Amino acid sequence: MAKMRAVQIAQANGPFEIVEREIPQPGVGDVRIKVQACGICHSDFLTKEGRWPGIRYPRVPGHEIAGIIDDVGAGVVGWSAGQRAGVGWHGGHCGHCNSCRRGDFVTCLIAPQVPGISYDGGYADYMIAPAGALALIPDELSAVEAAPIMCAGITTFNALRNSGARAGDVVAIVGIGGLGHLGIQFAAKMGFHTIAVARGATKEPLAKKLGAQIYIDSQAQDVAAELLKLGGAKVILATATSGKAMTATLGGLGVNGKLIVVGAPADPLEVPAGLLIGGRHAIMGWPSGSSIDSQDTMAFSAWTGVRSMNEVFPLDRAAEGYDRMMSGDARFRVVLTTGELK
User: Fold this and answer.
1) Residue 342 reports pLDDT greater than 60
2) Sign of the CA dihedral with 222 first, then 225, 231, and 232 last
3) What are the tens digits of pLDDT across the range 88-100?
4) Is 59 helix (H, G, I), strand (E, B) or coil?
5) Which one, of 281, 226, 273, 287, lies nearest residue 255 by Cα?
6) Distances (CA, A) of 318 to 47, 191, 202, 208
7) Phi, psi of 155 (to 5 degrees)
8) What is the pLDDT of residue 127?
């Protein structure tokens, strides 16, 4: 049997191991993807540290996958070998719970599937995925460019386009990191009056380069007061992993404004009830999206020039790439490549 490389974790908190495996065969309704690039996401710590309930080992991480369909299983319709395809956080669903019956697959209540958690993901030369999890990659995006769109991209894009904000509205992006640097670009390209919020004056040039009209230094300025000077934010997209930083922005919401949380802080948000009531403010979270949302995000990125800023590592340096991502020093996403790039 033909062999492939895979980077697996044999047990919770175990090291990354480069192993040789047989190339897997697609089952009914599945496709085999020849992986070209796979982003390393912070959520991969759920696999590395065994934080996902019921996860089974050994497991190959990775849910920001871009590659080429290599083979299709029986019953697959609409996909064929040779097509470029990606797979993101939404890696499958049960199809019969209330969420699935409403077409809201990413909130599947019974059997949500995530590549790299529910089944082996993209830290490998090949991986198997359900056909329903595939997103078509446009020709304008390279595999390295497409991979981070499968998670960081879709999360920020989908949250913004479903936020209720309209072109010209004040939209603030809190944090300029793996999520935030994409959120700023998407907000600007959608026509919002885009405000970037981060710590330190040194980040202002990058924020402006990414498309922000105004930069607020949360170390030197009162974020809420500055947003109110602009009439208040229709939407604040919170990408930074700090509950304290999110809380500090709430007073800057305009009437009927909304704080959308996509970063996952360890510390809680502290919300004054009166602030919510008086301004009819809302707080909500947003969990990426389904495969068609990934496809929409990539198409929009291709049309408008939105691109992730990436640090690229070969597959055999996956452990180094993961450590770089976890350090918080990466600018801004880390992507593994298999040597089979377009």
Assistant:
1) no
2) positive
3) 999 999 999 999 9
4) strand
5) 281
6) 14, 38, 30, 32
7) -60, -45
8) 98
Q: 3-state SS of 111-167?
A: CCCCECCCECCCCECEEEEEHHHCEECCCCCCHHHHHHHHCHHHHHHHHHHCCCCCC
Burial of residue 40 (CB within 10 Å: 0-12, 13-18, 19+) is buried
Contacts of 101 (CB under 8 A, 6+ apart): none
Within 10 angstroms of residue 273's Cβ, the number of other Cβ atoms is: 7
pLDDT band of residue 218 (cuts 50, 70, 90) is: very high
pLDDT category of residue 5 using cuts at 50, 70 and 90: very high
pTM value? 0.96
Q: Are 162 and 310 in contact (CB under 8 A)?
A: no
Q: Distance between CA atoms of 224 and 88, rounded to whole angstroms?
A: 34
Six token digits for residue 235: 């939407």
CB atoms within 10 A of CB 341: 13
What residues contact residue 219 under an 8 Å CB cut-off, 6+ apart? 199, 200
> In 3D, which of 186, 180, 279 has the Cα closest to residue 224?
279
Lookup: tokens for 267: 């510390």
Average pLDDT, the chain: 96
What is the radius of gyration, based on Cα positions, of the chain? 20
pLDDT tens digits for range 142-154: 999 999 999 999 9
Tokens of 125: 């030369």
Q: Considering the chain, what percentage of its residues have pLDDT values greater than 90?
A: 93
